[in-house]
Structure formats: C-alpha cells, structure tokens
Specification:
By secondary structure, the protein is an alpha+beta fold. 62% of the residues lie in helices and 11% in strands. The strands form three sheets. It has a five-stranded mixed sheet with strand order 4-6-7-9-8. α3 packs antiparallel against α4. It is elongated, with a radius of gyration of 36 Å. The two termini are 44 Å apart.
C-alpha cells in the first residue's frame, strides 16, 4: 500500500478519534449529571486530552505532507488501545458501557493494515478487555455512598450480563479480525490490479501512437530509400574496376535493401497484435534467422551463438514483432560491447530462455530504473530514443514473457529473456 493510502487511512482514524472523544466527553457529563455517578474527572479529562494531543500531532504531519507508513498507523492504534484501557480501568472496567470502543481500532486495523498487525490488535483488545474483568476501579453512585454500596455490587444477574457482554465482544473481535481483514485485503488487491490495468492501458496507448508513427514514417521513407537503391546500383556498375569501392557499395546496397525489408514488414504488420495466419517454424531456426539478419546489419560486431534446444525442436510462431524485440535487445548489448557479444538459447521447465551476454559496464541504479521507459534513453550520448527496450518489453508481455538485466563478473551484463513455450505455439484457426 502506498504512503498516500496510509495518509488517507490516518486521516480517517483522526476523524474516528474525534467521534470517540466527543462520545466519551458527552457520556461523562450525562453520567455525572443524570445518573449521579462519581467519575474520576482528572483521569477522564487527561485521557481525552492525550487523545486530542495525538490528533493535533497527526494533523500537523498530514498538513506538512509527511510520508505515512504502516508502522505509524499501527503505533496510533496501539496508543488508542492504551488510552482506552486506562480510561476503562478508572471507570468501572468491563462494566463500562463504552467498552465496545475497543472494536473501533480493530476495525481500522482490519481494513488498513496487513493481517499480522490486525491479529496483533485483536489479541491486545481481547487481553485488555479480559484483564478489565478482574482489575478495575468500580464506579460508585453518590446516593449509594451512604449505604456503602458500589455500582453493580451484589447484583448476580448484572454480573452474568457483563460476562455475556465479554463473550460477545470476544466473538465480535475475532469476526472483525478475520472477515473484515479479508475484505480490506481484497480491496487493496483490487486497487493494485486497477493501478496495473491503468499502467497497461497507458502502455497500450503509447504502443498505438508509436505504431501509427512507425507506419507513417515507413510510408515516407520508402521513396528516398528507393532512390538510394537505384543510385547505389548504378555506382556499383560504374566502379566495377575498383574492388574496394565496389565492395563497400555492395554492402551499402545490402543495408538499403535491409531497410526496405524492415519498412515493408512494418507496413504489412501495422495494427496487427499477432497474425493468426502466421507460420510456425522450429525455435532454433527462428533464433538463427534473427541473429543472421542482425549480423548482416551490424557486421562489425561479432556475435557468438550457442543454441542448445531439445530435439525435435519445438515449433513456435514466426512473429515479426518477437523477432524485432530480440533484435532490439541484441542491439542494446552490442552498443554496450561493440567488440563482441554472445547469445545462448535453451529450454528449462517449459520456458524458452535466451541469454545475451555483453562485456560492457553494467548500468547504474538510476539508469537501470529508466530502462524500459519510452523516450528515457540510457544512451543519450549515442543519440538513443529510449524505445528499444520499451518495445521489447511490450512485445514480450504479449507472450507473458519477461526480460531482466543482471551484472556479470568481472564485467558485463546478462540480458535474460524468459517466455513460456505454450504461449509461443501457433494457435489453430477455428
């Protein structure tokens, strides 16, 4: 639960404490004036005054927007129990008609705190109520003082009634601690799921915006790439007598063709989450195809591929987006380690695991926190846009997969991709 949620619950506790103070003050006045009961005025006033001090201190913290933690809320509830116990001790113990107020801090704990704190509060209020059955200062009525009688003394029927009140209180405390705590836990889980759904909706909106932008860019880049392809082809023919220049122009032509192929795949898959008509292929062939295409794009960075998949190799969907996600992660590793990287693939517990090793420096905690956020690049010096890892994570989430970054010894980063094999299988069309 967030600090804001604890602050909201503390504010509610303060209002509840105001109601308790008002009820106790009014009951004290009625008891002394209407029923002629001798109350220890100083003790009662002191207990209510301490509640007021706690409230004022808490209001000051809320006004200053201090961070509120669950331990602070627990401490406030423990103070309430202690003050109520002292107040009931000097005002008749378990015969005090307001002893039910023990249930108020328990109700707050059941809704706002974890179960272990809820049961701690439940145990304390039951113990306090039980001790008040044996140790307390009985109340006296002024009219009965001359007869030497104390309040509720020699009344066996009333004692039986008080014993029944105690039993009812114990049962009520256990019910609140068990059922209300579970209701509060469900509400907190619902809030957490709602927050996660909002985050996923925001990520989907970003993906939609990026998809629209990518489709428009692919359409606009098609013409200049075609022009470059024609010119490079003419230059290759004109400089056939120069092997060095001809080789460079041929490589440039291949890179242009690769760019055109990427743009064509973007245009063809625009707006498609996952093609139902996609073909399937062995996992080792799919990974090999991705690494080969990547090597063609970046021939200057060597990559060592080690695929150890079971035979016969499981078939997976040849998803273009998944291939691009792996390419983005390989690019990220190559940017950190341009002298060489390695990639391995295996299956463990029905999970396809792809490890990408680089020899670069592991990102700092601040940069690691930014990885995966759109337009928050950890390679701003190199002109990064911060979209590669974000898009890779978004695609992997579609397959219930995940990516994690851990440091290697003595240097480097391990990028691990985990995807359930069952989610990579091609679903038959109905």
């Amino acid at each position: 639960m967030s600090s804001l949620a604890f602050a909201t619950n503390l504010r509610r506790l303060l209002w509840l404490r105001v109601v308790m103070m008002a009820a106790l003050a009014l009951a004290s006045i009625v008891a002394t004036r209407a029923f002629d009961i001798a109350l220890p005025t100083i003790e009662v006033a002191s207990a209510i005054g301490l509640m007021l001090v706690v409230n004022l201190f808490s209001w000051l913290r809320l006004w200053r927007q201090a961070r509120i933690h669950e331990l602070e809320l627990l401490t406030q509830l423990l103070l309430d129990i202690a003050l109520l116990t002292w107040l009931f001790y000097v005002t008749g113990g378990y015969s005090n008609p307001f002893v039910w107020m023990y249930l108020l801090p328990l109700s707050v704990a059941a809704v706002a705190l974890p179960w272990r704190y809820t049961w701690l509060i439940a145990a304390l209020v039951i113990a306090a109520y039980s001790l008040l059955m044996f140790w307390y200062e009985p109340l006296t009525i002024h009219s009965a003082v001359h007869h030497g009688a104390s309040y509720h003394e020699h009344d066996q029927g009333f004692s039986l009634h008080l014993l029944g009140m105690w039993g009812g209180f114990v049962v009520s405390a256990i019910v609140i601690a068990f059922f209300v705590e579970r209701m509060g836990r469900n509400l907190r889980e619902y809030d957490k799921l709602l927050a996660e759904s909002r985050e996923k909706l925001l990520a989907s909106e970003r993906m939609l915006a990026l998809g629209t932008l990518a489709t428009g860019a692919a359409h606009e880049l098609g013409t200049p790439l075609s022009t470059m392809a024609v010119i490079t082809q003419e230059l290759v023919q004109e400089h056939q007598h120069d092997p060095g220049l001809s080789s460079s122009l041929t490589l440039l032509r291949k890179q242009i063709d690769r760019c055109k192929e990427i743009l064509s795949s973007i245009t063809a898959s625009a707006g498609m989450m996952r093609s139902e008509a996609a073909s399937s292929m062995p996992a080792d062939a799919f990974i090999g195809q991705v690494t080969e295409r990547w090597q063609e794009m970046r021939p200057s960075t060597p990559i060592k591929v080690d695929i150890q998949l079971p035979q016969p190799c499981p078939l997976i969907v040849a998803d273009l987006a998944l291939g691009q996600a792996l390419t983005n992660l390989i690019n990220n590793a190559a940017d950190a380690s341009p002298h060489g990287i390695s990639l391995s693939a295996r299956v463990e517990q029905n999970m396809l695991i792809i490890d990408i090793h680089d020899q670069g420096s592991f990102p700092s905690a601040d940069r690691l926190a930014l990885m995966g956020r759109p337009f928050h690049s950890t390679k701003q010096d190199a002109g990064g846009l911060g979209l590669g890892i974000f898009l890779a994570k978004s695609v992997l989430e579609k397959f219930d997969g995940e990516v994690a970054f851990t440091p290697r010894q003595p240097q480097g980063t391990l990028t691990r991709v985990r995807i359930p094999l069952k989610n990579l299988q091609l679903k038959p069309t109905p």
